[in-house]
Structures are given as structure tokens and as C-alpha cells.
Design a protein that fits this description.
Elements: H1 4-7, E1 8-9, E2 12-13, H2 41-44, H3 53-64, E3 68-72, H4 78-81, E4 88-93, H5 96-104, E5 109-112, H6 125-129, E6 131-136, H7 146-155, E7 161-167, H8 169-173, H9 192-201, E8 205-213, E9 221-229, E10 246-252, H10 259-268, E11 272-277, H11 284-289, E12 296-301, H12 313-326, E13 331-336, E14 339-342, H13 350-359, E15 364-365, E16 367-372, H14 385-388, E17 391-394, E18 406-408, E19 436-440, H15 446-457, H16 463-467, E20 491-492, H17 495-501, H18 503-508
Parallel strand pairs: 3-4, 3-6, 4-5, 6-7, 10-11, 10-13, 11-12, 16-19
Antiparallel strand pairs: 1-2, 7-9, 8-9, 13-18, 14-19, 15-18, 16-17, 17-20
């Protein structure tokens, strides 16, 4: 194991490739003698820093099937102990902070370790393999951070994931700040790009980076967050082989204005489509038929005997279940025509993303719902609705938070109808820890909203399904309802900033309810 001393001479790297200042910009002044950090803010002011970091770690631990959370630089461990007894907790720190943890918390394991010393923390590999690691706002306190990074690297030989946070210098201080940090306990602070370079140079595998909330008083996103993965993970650069087949089982009713664009989007993602049309009264069926043999694997009207007077969603879902037993595919997606989906990795197609999920040992995928709302009546039918609609909000209803709608074909019977299509069930299901993105475009204009809700949905609900509590999302909508939203009540969607600013929300759903977005 390479130690800190192999890299550092008097607090600086011995190479000249950018490591000399740990990838901090030239001219930056570090603090040579930081004060010991007494973790007292939560005690004295009721402030919780990085309120989403530990819930994210708990989310990952649950989905990875872990029993432990290891907190490197735990301070007084306020946020760590909130995870007990759901998880066994292990805190690592030194000095007064750790002594007070031992006094306060008889449960858990408290390890005294100075992160700037040589060597790595000795922990049972079996325990580490059943742990997610947290390192929240620690690295900026260290004159020599390579000891910490060496420990993270050693833990990630076994642990499936680690969550690391640190202040984003440019957002907190401004891009013209050249140090030293205002906090007397901080040695140096990185911007996100510098942090990424440092982590990669120290041979840590970055799965995701972005921003998270500073604290629960100001709710500003000025903290960098990195999700690191196990060192032996071999899925980051994988592409699906030629024979890997993903089929979207799409349902549609009167979606002629978007059906062509919806199909093209899936084809561009490497996904084939089998379309079930619920006897649309517009040209949805005819338009879709033009794609048969060109990405559209199948097309049928359902029910086969002719249009029914009601929208029989349960029966449609049972037909989807049947198709998943007869179509030869590696993965299926239960998909509506007014949805677009993306993998959680920018630039990675939906097909390649599902292949990564499979290679990671998981067989189903949940989604974070982003609802795009019309702010005017300018949408033109058959145009690119993804590029047109720019204002969104996260899903707010309970069904939006359970969207397990993609699954590996294991040759087992699946159930969709029992959950109303929100939560596919089958024996041996393992849901991937990181959600994919589901972009929803249910209403496209005032006229479209009135026609859809008052003409095509409310009069056609199946009475039995309504009695089960289904189809409630338009219950509050009455004639005269304004389907157009004020832009200032929504969040403008910019792809690059969205993936960066809403990292925790899109990967886990944590924080969606409080976000305007």
C-alpha cells in the first residue's frame, strides 16, 4: 500500500503534474496550521450541514444490502447516529470529538485515528464489504489529504460505495478567492473540477459528481459531492454487446402529436418498441405503423375485440405482463408515450445503462420523475417536445416515488397490474441503487389539457379501478382549470446544470419534495 509519505514532502507532492498543490489552482494560499475542528454547530445552533449526504449513504446501503455505515471523520456523529439501529455505525476520528462520541453513544464502534498518519485503518474486510462509507467535510481540514484518500481507496477494495463531500470553493467564496479559507479549521478548498482531478489521481473510481445542500438553514447548493464506487467495479466503461436487446412495452392513447418523436428518442437510445394502442381516435396508430421494421418491433390495438367504453388500465397492464413472457429480450421497460428516459450517466444510452445495471448484479431499475409543464400554447404537433418544454418540477405524488418500471428478463413471471404499473414485482428482484431519469410530458397546452382530462380521461376511468384508489391525479381538475404554469413557479431545465445541481435528487429521490424543481 502506498503511504502518504510516498507522495508528500512537507505537505506537498513530490511530482510536478498538478499534484504539487493537490490540483488547486496556481497562486492559491493554503493554511499551514489549521485549528482542530470542534464539531459543535449542531449542538449550539441547531444547524445540520450537508443534510442529504447521510440519507444518501443510507439509501445506498439499503439498496446494496449493507448492514453498516462507516463515517470517516465523524466529528460528534450527529447525523451518523440517526442511522442507528437501521444500520450498525462505525465512526472514525480523533481527539475531543471521538471522546465525546464514546461518552454519548454506547452503541456502535468508535475508532481513534488521525487521518494524516501513515497506514490504513484496520477493519474486518467482511464488515467493510457490508458497509457504505461517508466522508463528509473532512478533506478540507487536512494538511496532507493523501492519508485520507489512501484509506478511502483501501475501504473501497471491499465497500460498494462511498459518499464524499467538501465545500465547492468557487460557489462559496467566489472564483476570485485565492485562500486561505475563511474557516480557520480549513487548510484548502477545491472547486468541483479540481476535486475530480484529485480523486482520479489517487485512483479512486468516480461514479457521480455534483452538488448538494450546504445546510438546513440556507438550503444553498454549494457543496461538492462525489459518489465513489468499489475499486474492482468493471462497469463504468461498458457498452452493451451487439446481441443485447432492450424492448420498451409502450402504451398509448391519442398521442399523435408526440408519438413519432417519442419513438425516435427510444430508437436513438438503442431501445426497440412494442406499442399497444388503446384504440386511439386520432392518428397515433397510423403514425406508429410507419416505423414497423425500423425500430418498432410490434404494434397492436388493445383490446383485440375493439374499443371499450372505459379505460381499462389493469387489463392493459396484464397484456404487458403477457408480452414480457413471449417477446425475446434481455430487458423490458414499461413505457408511456409521453415519457422520455435517460440513464443516470450523461452521455450513456439507456441500453448501455441497463447493461451496466445487469453487470453490477441488479435486475430492475427505479426512476426519478421530472414533470415538464407548459407555460404557453406554442407547442407544435409533431415537433421535438423534449427541446420545446423547458420548465419542470419533480414529481410530488406518492406514485412518483415508486417507479420500478424496467427489469431484466429472467424468464420469470412478473406482476405490474397489482401496483397500477408503478412497481414491477418478480422473484429475486434487486433494484439498482441509482435511479434513472423519467421525463414526463403529460400536458402540452391548454387545449391539449382540456381535451385529455375532460374528454379522454375523466369520462373513461374504469369504475372498479377508481374504487381501488387508482386514477386520482386529475381528481382536483375541474372545467375552467388553467393548465399553463407561470415560469417562475417552475425550474428552467438546462441539461448540464441539472445533472450537476440535482445529483442527490435524481439518483435517489431525496430532497425532491422540498425542491421547486
Amino acid at each position: 500500500m502506498t503511504t502518504a509519505k510516498d507522495h508528500i514532502t512537507n505537505g506537498r507532492a513530490s511530482t510536478n503534474d498538478g499534484r504539487a498543490e493537490f490540483f488547486i489552482k496556481p497562486g492559491y494560499t493554503t493554511r499551514a496550521a489549521p485549528e482542530y475542528f470542534h464539531d459543535t454547530l449542531a449542538d449550539t445552533r441547531g444547524i445540520t450541514h450537508q443534510p442529504d449526504a447521510y440519507p444518501l449513504a443510507a439509501h445506498l446501503a439499503a439498496y446494496y444490502g449493507c448492514r453498516h455505515v462507516i463515517d470517516i471523520g465523524c466529528g460528534l456523529a450527529h447525523k451518523l447516529v440517526e442511522l442507528h439501529p437501521r444500520f450498525e455505525v462505525i465512526g472514525v476520528d480523533f481527539g475531543d470529538n471521538l471522546h465525546r462520541c464514546r461518552e454519548r453513544y454506547p452503541f456502535g464502534q468508535w475508532i481513534e485515528w488521525d487521518l494524516e498518519r501513515d497506514g490504513v485503518i484496520e477493519l474486518d474486510p467482511a464488515i467493510v464489504a457490508s458497509s457504505v462509507v461517508v466522508c463528509s467535510d473532512v478533506i478540507e481540514h487536512l494538511v496532507d489529504p493523501t492519508g485520507l484518500l489512501a484509506n478511502l481507496r483501501a475501504l473501497l477494495e471491499h465497500a460498494p460505495a462511498a459518499v464524499l463531500t467538501t465545500p465547492e470553493r468557487d460557489l462559496v467564496r467566489g472564483s476570485s478567492h485565492f485562500g486561505p479559507p475563511q474557516n480557520p479549521s480549513h487548510v484548502r478548498e477545491w472547486n468541483l473540477a479540481e476535486l475530480e482531478m484529485l480523486l482520479r489521481a489517487e485512483r479512486l473510481r468516480i461514479n457521480f459528481t455534483g452538488l448538494t445542500m450546504d445546510n438546513d438553514h440556507e438550503w444553498q447548493k454549494r457543496t461538492s459531492l462525489a459518489v465513489l464506487e468499489r475499486n474492482d467495479a468493471a462497469t463504468r466503461d461498458l457498452r452493451a454487446p451487439a446481441g443485447f436487446r432492450v424492448v420498451a412495452l409502450m402504451t398509448a392513447y391519442n398521442e399523435a402529436d408526440i408519438i413519432a418523436a417519442s419513438l425516435r428518442h427510444l430508437f436513438a437510445q438503442g431501445v426497440e418498441v412494442y406499442l399497444l394502442d388503446n384504440w386511439s381516435s386520432d392518428r397515433t396508430f397510423e403514425i406508429a405503423g410507419e416505423f414497423l421494421g425500423h425500430g418498432l418491433a410490434g404494434l397492436e390495438r388493445f383490446p383485440a375485440g375493439g374499443a371499450s367504453h372505459s379505460y381499462d388500465w389493469r387489463e392493459l397492464l396484464r397484456r404487458v405482463e403477457e408480452l414480457s413472457q413471449t417477446i425475446e429480450a434481455d430487458w423490458f421497460i414499461h413505457h408511456d408515450a409521453d415519457e422520455l428516459r435517460e440513464s443516470p450517466w450523461p452521455g450513456v444510452s439507456l441500453r448501455d445503462g441497463l447493461y451496466r445495471v445487469e453487470r453490477s448484479g441488479f435486475n430492475s431499475v427505479d426512476h426519478t420523475v421530472v414533470n415538464f409543464r407548459p407555460v404557453d400554447n406554442s407547442f407544435a404537433a409533431n415537433s421535438d417536445f423534449e427541446s420545446h418544454f423547458k420548465f419542470f418540477e419533480f414529481g410530488r405524488t406518492q406514485p412518483d416515488y415508486v417507479q420500478v418500471k424496467a427489469w431484466q428478463n429472467l424468464g420469470r413471471k412478473i406482476s405490474l397490474a397489482d401496483s397500477g404499473g408503478h412497481d414491477v414485482q418478480f422473484d429475486g428482484r434487486r433494484v439498482y441503487p441509482y435511479k434513472f431519469l423519467l421525463k414526463h410530458y403529460s400536458i402540452r397546452s391548454q387545449r391539449h389539457g382540456e381535451r385529455k382530462v375532460f374528454g379522454e380521461r375523466q369520462p373513461r376511468w374504469n369504475a372498479g379501478e377508481k374504487s381501488m384508489g387508482w386514477h386520482t391525479h386529475y381528481d382536483v381538475v375541474r372545467p375552467g382549470h388553467n393548465f399553463l404554469r407561470r415560469p417562475e413557479s417552475l425550474t428552467h431545465f438546462d441539461r448540464e446544470s441539472f445533472y450537476r445541481a440535482y445529483l442527490v435528487e435524481r439518483l435517489s429521490g431525496i430532497g425532491c419534495m422540498r425542491s421547486k424543481g
